């Protein structure tokens, strides 16, 4: 629960800042996506307001990789989550280094709003039962709103505004733009993961409608969890034995 509360605060602040940049400044990237490549030059300066957003987001996703691997409970989609964080951090780092920062702000805006809804819904699930009472705020309504926004922002606007700009408009503005295939491959991988999680949420909704109960479909079943835990324990013991053997050999040497 504290993790979801922290993420809710972070995503709300980061999305609010992206909204400010796209709608309350001179940037027209949302309404005119091809403009992200207007006057593009290698080594061009990054505006301070965009650099601040990059610094915050890069720090967050760098920590998220560590937290998912070493701190969070391992779930069925944890491997995909790690890949997502790595791809996101790579996009943030390389887009800043090679001055594709205008595209980056648009990508962050289209993704952070869905994370706000996700963490808010998770908090309501955690707080659904207190002192024998039921406090979940309209399970199905929250989830259906989340599905609608996720589809609209990540599966409709993301390809329409970002992928079209990076795949088509970029070549029109800068015919010899560097790292064209590299960045578009990362963005396409991000789209595939968006589809993956969208299907996860659809399964979640179906489960709610059938079972009248909200559980995280990402969690392992008891039997699966036992096997995973046992496997991790065996791996840890084997690693410890290897370390002990190595120390013993070193001592003899």
Automatic annotation (TrEMBL):
<comment type="pathway">
    <text>Sphingolipid metabolism.</text>
</comment>
<comment type="pathway">
    <text>Lipid metabolism; sphingolipid metabolism.</text>
</comment>
<feature type="transmembrane region" description="Helical">
    <location>
        <begin position="50"/>
        <end position="71"/>
    </location>
</feature>
<dbReference type="GO" id="GO:0016020">
    <property type="term" value="C:membrane"/>
</dbReference>
<dbReference type="InterPro" id="IPR016439">
    <property type="entry name" value="Lag1/Lac1-like"/>
</dbReference>
<feature type="domain" description="TLC">
    <location>
        <begin position="3"/>
        <end position="210"/>
    </location>
</feature>
<keyword id="KW-0812">Transmembrane</keyword>
<feature type="transmembrane region" description="Helical">
    <location>
        <begin position="9"/>
        <end position="30"/>
    </location>
</feature>
<dbReference type="GO" id="GO:0046513">
    <property type="term" value="P:ceramide biosynthetic process"/>
</dbReference>
<protein>
    <submittedName>
        <fullName>Ceramide synthase 1</fullName>
    </submittedName>
</protein>
<keyword id="KW-0472">Membrane</keyword>
<feature type="transmembrane region" description="Helical">
    <location>
        <begin position="162"/>
        <end position="181"/>
    </location>
</feature>
<feature type="transmembrane region" description="Helical">
    <location>
        <begin position="187"/>
        <end position="209"/>
    </location>
</feature>
<keyword id="KW-1133">Transmembrane helix</keyword>
<dbReference type="Pfam" id="PF03798">
    <property type="entry name" value="TRAM_LAG1_CLN8"/>
</dbReference>
<feature type="transmembrane region" description="Helical">
    <location>
        <begin position="78"/>
        <end position="98"/>
    </location>
</feature>
<dbReference type="InterPro" id="IPR006634">
    <property type="entry name" value="TLC-dom"/>
</dbReference>
<feature type="transmembrane region" description="Helical">
    <location>
        <begin position="133"/>
        <end position="153"/>
    </location>
</feature>
<dbReference type="GO" id="GO:0050291">
    <property type="term" value="F:sphingosine N-acyltransferase activity"/>
</dbReference>
